[in-house]
Amino acid sequence: MVRRRESVSPILFACRILHAGYDKLIRLGGSCCNSAEILNGKSILGERQGLPYGKPQEGNGREEYMILIQNAYMIDPKSGREGRYDILTEGDRIAKIAEKIERPAGDCTVIDGEGLLAAPGLVDVHVHFREPGFTHKEDILTGAAAAAKGGFTTVVMMANTKPAIDSGEILGQVLQRGRQTGVHVLSCANVTMGMQGKELTPMEELAALGAAGFTDDGKPLMDGKLVREAMERAARLDKPVSFHEEDPALIAQNGINAGKASGHYGLEGSPREAEIRLVERDLKLALETGAKVNIQHISARESVELLRQAKEKGGNVHGEATPHHFTLTEEALIRYGSLAKMNPPLREEADRQAILKGLADGTIDIIATDHAPHTAQEKARPLTEAPSGIIGLETALSLGITELVEKGYLSMKQLLRLMSTNPAALYGLDAGYLAEGGPGDIVLVDAGAETVPGQYASKASNTPFTGWRLKGKVVCTIASGRVAYKDDGSR
């Protein structure tokens, strides 16, 4: 595990890395390491460098660090602009986008983008980094490393930690920890104290202290009156409220669809009605309160239709689909066991098709991973005892390209909008687009390259997608004008 050096003066050293066919001398802060370590997507995080994220190293005489990407095929899903362009970042912003940019004088790293797609850094508004309380599964540093490797430059953490993120003290701690990484790590705060569903958190105070939004994800909120009050307060704050929609009164065993999967294991499982009931309630309340509401990890076709109807009525309502829900059905639980167990569960092919349609027509406007790490020992327990959830940050983009773009459900521009522009807009973030003066958050992707998941930056490996042959490989992730990840085998 990478540890922060609290009071050690930076050691300047030089390492040679290859960019666009020539050797480039760069200076990094931190203890000496070889170039393979630097390029492996972990040691280049701000934590290893001992640097605050997005800031130049103090005392080295360098105010602006530049990156020039040449000859990439750029897609900006926000403006619709696409084509072959060079992109120059200065400091933490994009300084110029043009068909041809000459290498500027000064400290500039040049990246050959020939054959690569340049897109906005991806934005995932649903991740579990397990800190505080469950760092044997994941922590903010390893979660951020997984994000960077997957092409994500901004993530929003859920608040089901221990202690829960229901106070300014805990919120401040996780946000400070996030600033030690190489990507933008934001966090929701809880809707209710201790996630007990009884008393609302000091939402106004938490919003003022930097909470990106509010959620008790991991637990449904059953008190409709309390939900209404939370929505009203969130609406006044212009913050989204995200809901995990599963009524526990209807669920015998979570993570297992009541149907073919539950029958295979001789269990009762989790029926679709558990999701539908709460989705219907919360969309109705959203329309009545005007709140910005996000229905998380939709799994049932009826939920897609309810969301579609609420949007047609003018609601400020949004919906997430996970890569596992648009790729897999309950058959995966029979094949992979606990590695395909998640809440809500994988359901029928008709549900998957409804999710695909919802993504294509804009009803579902966000792809989010619900990155949920667990240890191998936990997942090795009997199915009914194993925890629900899978990791997703390092496979999401490849699954989107393979399952959605390659199969004709979405264009690449649509996929990128769902994975960057739209989630950024939900949370009001300066992210998810490429423009001069915009954030220096960029992902370079070899969209045609084959990748086989298996070597993870995450602490965890709980996913059924290990060993799958997927299209689309992240070559380089740039956050705030700094390289946060670079593939070992890239140019």
Any chance you could write out the topology, listing elements then pairs?
Layout: E1 12-19, E2 22-29, H1 35-38, H2 46-49, E3 66-75, E4 82-90, E5 93-98, E6 108-112, E7 117-120, E8 122-127, H3 140-149, E9 152-157, H4 168-178, E10 184-187, H5 203-208, E11 214-215, H6 224-237, E12 241-243, H7 260-265, H8 273-289, E13 293-295, H9 301-312, E14 317-321, H10 323-327, H11 331-336, H12 349-361, E15 366-367, H13 376-379, H14 396-405, H15 412-426, E16 442-451, E17 470-479, E18 482-486
Helix pairs in contact: 6-8, 8-9, 9-12
- The level of helicity is 25-40%
Ends apart, CA distance between termini? 27 Å
Low-confidence stretches: 1-62
Tally of alpha and pi helices: 15
The average pLDDT score comes to 89
CATH superfamily name of the largest domain? Metal-dependent hydrolases
- The CATH architecture category of the largest domain equals Alpha-Beta Barrel
The number of distinct β-strands equals 18
At the first level of CATH, what is the class of the largest domain?
Alpha Beta
Radius of gyration: 22 Å
Shape: globular
Using the coordinates shown, work out and report the CATH topology of the largest domain: TIM Barrel
Domain count: 2
Q: What percentage of amino acids are in beta strands?
A: 15-25%
